[in-house]
Amino acid sequence: MKSKKPISLLRYWTTRYLLTLVIGLLLLGAGSMWWIKETTLQNRLNLMEYLAVETADRLGQSFGNQDFGRLDRRLDDRARILQMENQPQLFVTDLDGNILNSGPMRGGGHHRSSGVIPSEVFDNEESVKKLMMDGEAFYSAKSSIMVDNQQTGWVVAMQSASELSDVNQEYRLLIVLLVGLGLLGWIVIYFLSKKILKPIQDVAHAAAQVREGDYEIKLDADPKELEIRELVTSFREMTSRLTQLEQMRAELLAGVTHDLKTPVTSISGLVQAVRDGIVTGEERQEFLDITLKEIQRLQTMISDLLEFNSLAAGAFTIRTERCDLNKLVQEIGRQWQVTQSERVDLEVFTPAEAIYAMTDPLRLQQILINLLNNSYQAINHEGTISIILSEGRIDVKDTGSGIPEAEQALVFERFFRGEKKKLKVRGLGLGLSFSRMLARSLGADLILKESDQQGTTFSIVWK
Q: Which of 38, 93, 228, 447 is 20 to 30 Å from 423 at the Cα level?
């Protein structure tokens, strides 16, 4: 099954934002239309009721002088003042509902100069009522005509439901408003999304460069958004680290080639001299001893590589047991001290109470011996080394010259060797990286606690 072709982030999100906006506006529009229709109908019914009441008051004040022509003109003026688009029909009736004025009754095709208002208009006390006439819905509003506190008739205002509910103009204004909001929202979403996506697109382009092996990238953007700023900053740091690792890889290749080539060349020359009889007697034995030392050094480097690869691949075992760390640390320090060719000033500090932990003593010994060897190289036979055991941690401290600040962040990188160490000690630069991996396999971590001109402290810290 073929996968769908990916689309740009800008198109993907702006399309979804726009779809969400349109759905929201449609729902808002539907609710607004219902509200407009209901409120407009109610307002028009209130106006129609007001006209009926006002007309009845005027007729009552005229004491029966029913000049309907003049009254109609006043009503027309009142409708214009109230900005009524469709004026209701006003009827003056007697108490029995007989129409007294000559105004035509519109709606339903009726045009007559006289008639009778349906009795259902007067059947209850409600001033506003909906009724059906000839299959068409009408609304009526009534008000009694009072002369000298006596009711003499009725004023009835009537209008068809279709005219009262005609809100096309309001709907047009609402549609224009919603379309304007939709366009404005889409434009805002588009440009904001484009602005947000610009640094992400730059990072994606830079990632493509890194994939091709080009680490010389430039990310000039300095976004204000916290998450995007962190993304850009992290990518810059990543490419910087990759550049350093690439440089270290090149140095490793040159270093390993040199470290392997030198003993091989020495062994080849020594063996050839012995074979050809160039050296004899004690000198021959000395050449053989040197050859064995060079072979042992080669074996050590190859063993380091094999152990590191096994650990990195997880092809090794951890056998944990409950250990008395006080005794274990003291024993490791003593064994390491007696195996050194020259005297080493080593001090082991343990608390008064025994500290027990579940760990693999052989793996812990590997870590401590590697740290002690590094400290021994740092003090250059002139300082002291301390192993300090406390609850949850073991510190290995020396009084050497310290690690340069520029190199401290790289000491745990595989194959990294400091400038000073390259000149004094041959190796692959795997010791600290290997030790940290061992520490993490034991449920702990190996960290560089501090380093300055007065010395260096590495710590094994249990989590």
A: 447
Q: Please, what's the b/e burial string for 169-206 (b: 16 or more CB within 10 A of its CB; e: otherwise)?
A: eeeeebeeebeeebeebeeebeeebeebbebbebbeeb
The backbone torsions φ and ψ at residue 403, rounded to the nearest 5 degrees and listed phi first, read -100, 130
Do 245 and 136 share a structural domain? no
Backbone angles phi, psi at 117, to 5 degrees: -70, 135
User: What angle do the packed helices 325-338 and 361-379 form, to 10 degrees?
Assistant: 50
* Co-location of 356 and 437 in the same domain: yes
- Tell me which amino acid residue 173 is: L
Residue-level pLDDT at 77: 59
326 with 445, same domain: the answer is yes
**121 exposure class (CB count in 10 Å sphere: 0-12, 13-18, 19+):** buried
The pLDDT score that the predictor gives to residue 326 is 93
CB burial string 300-329: b at 16+ within 10 A, e below = ebeebeebbeebeeeeeeeeeeebebbebb
Which residue ranges of the chain lie beneath pLDDT 50?
1, 104-114, 423
Q: Return the closest-CA partner of residue 161 out of 118, 129, 120, 114.
A: 129
Host domain of residue 278: 222-314
Per-residue confidence (pLDDT) for residue 416, from 0 to 100: 66
What percent helix, strand, coil does the chain show, rounded to 5?
A: 55, 15, 30
At 248, list the tokens. 């270290």
